[in-house]
Design a protein that fits this description.
This protein is α/β, with parallel strands linked by helices. The chain has helices at about 5-15, 40-50, 55-65, 90-95, 125-145, 160-170, 195-210, 210-225, 230-255, 270-280, 320-335, 345-360, 395-410, 420-440, 450-455, 465-480, 495-505, 510-515, 520-540, 550-575; strands at about 25-30, 40, 70-75, 80-85, 110-115, 145-150, 285, 290-295, 305-310, 335-340, 370, 375, 450. It binds one RNA strand of 77 nucleotides through helix 2, strand 9, helix 12, strand 13 and helix 16.
Length: about 575
RNA sequence: GCACCCGUAGAUCAGCUGGAUAGAUCGCCAGAUUCCGAAUCUGGAGGUCGCAGGUUCGAGUCCUGCCGGGUGCGCCA
């Protein structure tokens, strides 16, 4: 249970006893740690609504709370702030009783859609945030007590497919895939490698941009693929297999995994019946040869364009596949919600899809959430580019961060004598932590500036700092065991630094709940950092392994163990596990 | 043009549903290591919260207008 919830209930009861709504009893961690540990500002609001003096009401509430032995101090400050400080015994008891955590009351099943890589297109920095935030949201959902299903939602069904097919057809028209008379079976071996795809796609894309006739050809091929032309389907399956292997590897390097590897193509069979049903219900209309669904509403401030179900050439767009995907998810997993971790520039698109889903009765609109995120920018404040001005591949970024982390480790003399493979594994973890923490510690919706030197620093609010704190705590516990310092006992509060650390540990549930409720992982990052800071202060101020008093020693070891456990739990949710040593 | 996001310390950013003296981190200045990992810790300087009005007992937070930056607006994803 949340400690703040327990305190809120107490204060709420006091408000009720004075004839006010218990909700005024909301207690939170104090903004003024120099004055108190917790505060309740309810007296101001309650008095305002009742036309009473807030200070006087605060005194009445405080008088009731003072009777509880839980509190070491209850006071009223300023216009009516109620300041609360718990006894050290109460703090220790709650920590040892497992307080401070949090779990949702009603477990739900939530699908997280956070990949969206396109076949034949290498992953680039644009995919990074979706991967990092999505993976974290998936873990956050689970930490909150819900069930999560991560779906990569491959972009395997759009115009790029037609562009690729036609490009290969031009290059090698002799292949059986392009012979309408060919009756199969088609070759098992892919006619193209990953490198071919990565070369051919930009080539095709550029050609289509330059030549309308070439573009029309690609659109026709896309439509033919979607209509089921056997040769195109066979070729497309090769694209899929070749791409997936490399995509999987890159996500794994980032510690990102998916439960479902579904894609747009998987829902293709659902599209025709779905649209037919919409048509029968009179929800669609033909406009300029395209079949659309109008979604504008009376109170709209902006003009929301209709969702195009079928283009005038008969091919579908991603709005159509997104709708069919909702249908598929509903039937196969019966999710309570679906989260889309996708760039904020697609907000209008998801507004369209969500409205369409609601209007068509496919899925409740308010259970579909677009968890959009901002852009990762370069130091110039503009979207991140390579020196040449191109898009940086994710592979290149991972290598860059890897190397930087390895260099940092080498220059500080860490991991000496660990052996090459362990050192490399540590560098990978440090690099991933640097990258992920930098991303997640910003509010999801804001843009941020990518600064590799700052991110990989071991100083300040960085991923490596957190890893270091974890490693140090583990090291202490190992040393204590080796030195026969005794087993960790129940944490107790003695020194001010211990009190501060215990208070931080008790705030974990609030951070978890805030992060989940608001779908903002940075609350958890903030907690992790402040927790690590509290630990470092405690560590600097208190002897642990060689503390002479065995009772204090055991309590402090217990505190270290509690810290290490909680930090590692949070690091796990953030998707940046610490090494055992470094 | 319309809609949305943003503007807080030299830099990068927090600030929950309106509450006390606007917080961190980096950088800068001054300290701390016969001791468990100093990649650390302690302290200090540094802010007209873009501008101007308004609502309120109280505004970084809510409302209006303006200035500046970014993004999106029908057959790409």
């Amino acid at each position: 249970m949340l400690l703040t919830a327990e305190l809120s209930a107490l204060a709420g009861a006091a408000f009720v006893a004075e004839g006010y709504d218990g909700a005024f009893g909301a207690v939170r961690v104090s903004d003024r740690p120099d004055l108190a540990q917790f505060q309740c500002n309810g007296a101001l609001g309650a008095a305002k609504s009742a036309g009473q003096n807030p200070r006087a009401l605060g005194e009445k509430i405080a008088a009731r709370l003072k009777a509880d032995p839980l509190f070491a101090a209850v006071s009223v400050a300023g216009p009516g702030f109620i300041n609360l400080t718990l006894t050290d015994e109460a703090l220790s008891a709650r920590l040892n009783g497992g307080a401070g955590g949090w779990r949702a009351e009603t477990p739900e099943t939530i699908i997280v859609d956070y990949g969206g890589p396109n076949i034949a297109k290498p992953l680039h920095v644009g995919h990074l945030r979706a991967a990092i935030i999505g993976e974290c949201m998936k873990r956050l959902i689970r930490a909150a007590g819900h069930a999560a299903i991560g779906d990569i939602h491959m972009g395997d069904w759009g115009l790029p497919m037609g562009q690729l097919i036609t490009e290969i057809a031009r290059d090698r028209p002799d292949l059986p895939y392009f012979d309408p008379a060919f009756e199969g079976p088609y070759p098992d071996q892919s006619p193209v490698t990953l490198e071919d795809l990565e070369r051919l796609y930009p080539q095709a894309s550029a050609a289509c941009k330059a030549d309308p006739a070439r573009a029309a050809e690609a659109r026709a091929a896309t439509a033919a693929l979607q209509a089921g032309r056997p040769g195109y389907r066979a070729l497309w399956k090769h694209f899929l297999a070749v791409s997936r292997a490399s995509i999987e590897r890159e996500y794994e390097d980032l510690g990102v995994t998916f439960d479902w590897w579904k894609g747009e193509a998987d829902v293709d069979p659902l599209i025709a019946p779905m649209v037919e049903k919409l048509r029968a219900e009179g929800l669609t209309e033909i406009d300029d040869g395209a079949e659309i669904m109008r979604l504008a509403r009376p109170g709209d401030k902006k003009e929301l364009p209709p969702l195009i179900l079928y283009k005038s050439d008969g091919a579908v767009m991603y709005g159509t596949t997104d709708l069919a995907t909702i249908l598929d998810r509903r039937e196969t997993a019966h999710p309570d919600r679906i989260f889309y971790v996708v760039d904020g520039r697609q907000r209008d698109h998801f507004e369209q899809v969500f409205r369409a889903a609601g209007k068509a009765g496919l899925y409740p609109e308010d259970r579909l959430e677009h968890l959009w995120f901002g852009t990762m920018n370069g130091k110039d404040g503009k979207p991140f580019k390579t020196r040449a001005g191109g898009v940086l591949k994710l592979r290149e970024l991972i290598d860059m961060v890897d190397q930087k982390a390895a260099a940092r480790i080498a220059e500080t003399g860490l991991a000496e004598g660990y052996g090459a493979s362990e050192t490399a594994a540590i560098a990978r973890k440090v690099g991933v932590a640097a990258l992920k923490f930098a991303d997640l510690s910003n509010p999801r919706t804001s843009d941020y500036i990518f600064d590799i030197d700052r991110f990989t620093s071991f100083e300040g609010k960085t991923g490596p700092y957190l890893l270091y704190a974890s490693v140090r705590a583990r090291s202490i516990l190992r040393k204590a065991a080796q030195a026969g310092a005794g087993a960790p006992g129940a944490p107790a509060v003695g020194a001010p630094e211990e009190r501060a650390l215990v208070l931080m540990l008790l705030q974990y549930g609030d951070a978890l709940k805030d992060a989940f409720d608001r779908r903002l992982p940075h609350y958890l990052c903030d907690h992790a950092f402040r927790l690590a800071q509290s630990f470092s202060s405690f560590y600097a101020a208190c002897r642990i392994v060689d503390e002479a008093d065995p009772k204090i020693r055991a309590a402090r070891l217990g505190l270290v163990a509690a810290f290490a456990g909680q930090l590692d739990t949070v690091l796990d949710i953030l998707g940046m596990p610490a090494p055992e040593r470094m």
